[in-house]
Amino acid sequence: MAVIRKEQEREELHRAIRRNAPQDETLNETIETVFRHIEESAKGSQSESSFTGLFDGYDVNSNKLGAAVVKRNEKLVKLRSSVAEMNLGEVKDHIIDAFGDAYEYLMTMYASNAGKSGGEFFTPADVSELLTRLGTVGKTEIDKVYDPACGSDSLLLKAEKVLGRDAIRNGFFGQEINMR
After folding, report:
1. What is the tens place of the pLDDT at every residue in 108-152?
2. Are residues 79 and 153 in the same domain?
3. Does some domain include residue 48?
4. Residues 60 and 102 in one domain
5. Long-range contacts for 173-178 (Cβ within 8 Å, ≥24 apart)?
6. 162 Cβ neighbours under 8 A, 6+ residues apart
7. More confidently predicted of 124 and 45
8. Residues 161 and 142 placed together within one structural domain of the fold
């Protein structure tokens, strides 16, 4: 049984899914299964609460990906290949935050396309950076960062980017009242 599980784990690695994706007619189901297995792997461990519901926001069966399963899977193949081709280097060597930058970009696009209903409280990245720089003039280290209206986390992200993670001694704190 342990040998079968190890083989299954190897087949659920990103590189194996990517390798098999173009021929996998049920790629959407494969990805759902992998997401479920990742969440289940943490059951009974200290990190269980961190993994529970981790992939709830990912709908690989959404009609937004395509009306038919074939079209959805084509987009999923393209997406997985694009992510795999990203040269992210070694995490320890990073001075850029590729995923954070991508998140900010997508939030900007969402806010600009959604109009008032979606982006009414979004702070653009350049404004957040300016506010962060103004609030930290002459400082190389601060105790903590607090954002009283952190809907997009833009100010919190910029504080880390401007000062660096090690320069913020006691963490990041934010709250949001908008329940939408």
Report:
1. 777 666 665 555 566 777 788 888 888 888 888 999 888 887 776
2. no
3. yes
4. no
5. 173/144, 173/145, 173/146, 173/147, 174/146, 174/147, 174/148, 174/150, 175/147, 175/148, 175/149, 175/150, 176/149, 176/150, 176/151, 177/149, 178/121, 178/151
6. 129, 132, 133, 136
7. 45
8. yes
